[in-house]
Amino acid sequence: MQFFVEFSNANSPLYSWNRSQQDDLTAFVGEELALYFGLGSELPGIRDRNPNFNFDIAPVPQGAGATVRRTYGDFYGLAIVKAAPNPQGAYLAAQVLGRADVVAALSQQLRLVPVHRGSIASGTSDPFRQVMFNAALIARGWLDPDPVATNDIFQEMVEAVVSNREKVSGAVSDAVRRIELVF
Predict the structure, then answer these.
(1) 134-174 pLDDT per residue, tens
(2) DSSP states of 90-147 as a string?
């Protein structure tokens, strides 16, 4: 959190953003921002918005004191609802969709990382996707019961620190408590 808010602290050597500026993705695609933290799945959209943009991707930097490498990832899965009109057919469809060859084809088409470790271990000739494959092995996510509420909580946490209403530790503790209430 402290690292994140340093980008909006005018007294910090990391200062690079304030409310009068455009959002980070728009600035990055417009070649006005040197570094953008985003998801690998955003790659096609970035290329579509600026096909002449020459950029690279890299793993998220890890803290100096980190003992375990981690990054964030979105995870998608299949589920069969108990009240499905044809649970056996749904199960068969899920089995087909879960086959390694089908997963590989879907992940290539959707520009997502496959879920099979064997497919990830095989790698890819695309250097951009290889970074995504490597990140998938250390990615963690969390079940977000209410994305709108948690987004508001995170926004209020950042604003509390940036406006000096709260210290980082207090704002983070408050955000954790509020997110626990959402669950």
Answers:
(1) 999 999 988 888 999 999 999 999 999 988 899 999 999 99
(2) HHHHHHHHTSHHHHHHHHHHHT---S-HHHHHH--S-HHHHHHHHHHTTEE----S-H
